[in-house]
Structure formats: structure tokens, C-alpha cells
UniProtKB/TrEMBL annotation:
SUPFAM superfamilies: Lysozyme-like
Name of a matching Pfam family: Phage_lysozyme
Alphabetized Gene3D superfamilies for the sequence: 1.10.530.40
N-terminal signal peptide: 1-24
Reactions listed under catalytic activity: Hydrolysis of (1->4)-beta-linkages between N-acetylmuramic acid and N-acetyl-D-glucosamine residues in a peptidoglycan and between N-acetyl-D-glucosamine residues in chitodextrins
Keyword Signal on entry: yes
UniProt-listed Enzyme Commission number(s): 3.2.1.17
Upper lineage: Bacteria, Pseudomonadati, Pseudomonadota, Alphaproteobacteria, Caulobacterales
Protein name from the UniProt record: Lysozyme
Superkingdom of origin organism: Bacteria
């Protein structure tokens, strides 16, 4: 595979990833809810502060008792979804249907 073919394959992979994210995001927000104030995670309680569309972790700036603007929530949720999508890229088969890929992203 030459350099141009590799670049084309990488571009297609990135395009597929973002297509799947665009399908996954609305469902994730609908299922998780959109909460701009930190709340206790339903499964882990106060031990796991949660905000926006189910985002957890200090990595994303989630802190107990904090309020987030719409823009902050959008950025945190997008970053978390992209991180999760990239984390599973190595174990999802090439050519996976976009809706199936979106479902895997939502699951993670």
C-alpha cells in the first residue's frame, strides 16, 4: 500500500468514526439525560460524580458540586465519547456498519 492509499484509508477510518459518533451522540444524551449540575452516579453514588450526558471522572473536569455551562457540557461529552470511541477502535472490525459501530460507542 503506497502513501496515498494509506492516507485514503486513514481518512475513511476517521470519517467512519465521526459518522458513528454523530449517530451515537443523540441517543446517548437521550438515554443518559442532560444534567448541568454534578449528581451522584446512579450505580456508584457519591463515589462517582457525574455530569452532562453521564460523563464521569476528573479527566473530564467532573467535580462534586460543580455547575457546567451548555458549552462545557457539550465539550466534556464530546471528548468523553471520542475517547471511548478511540479506545475500542482496535477491537472493532473494519467495515463495521455505521449503526453497529455507533451502538458499540454508546455501550462504552
Amino acid at each position: 500500500m503506497n502513501t496515498a492509499q494509506k492516507a485514503g484509508a486513514a481518512g475513511a477510518s476517521i470519517a467512519g468514526l465521526f459518522a458513528a459518533l454523530s449517530i451515537a451522540a443523540p441517543g446517548l444524551v437521550r438515554d443518559e439525560g442532560w444534567v448541568t449540575v454534578t449528581y451522584d452516579d446512579p450505580a456508584h453514588g457519591a463515589a462517582l460524580p457525574t455530569a452532562c450526558a453521564g460523563v464521569t471522572g476528573a479527566k473530564y473536569g467532573v467535580k462534586a458540586g460543580k455547575r457546567y455551562s451548555q458549552a462545557e457540557c457539550e465539550a466534556m461529552t464530546a471528548r468523553a465519547m471520542l475517547d471511548h470511541a478511540l479506545a475500542i477502535q482496535h477491537c472493532t472490525p473494519a467495515g463495521l456498519p455505521t449503526k453497529t459501530h455507533a451502538a458499540f460507542i454508546r455501550f462504552t
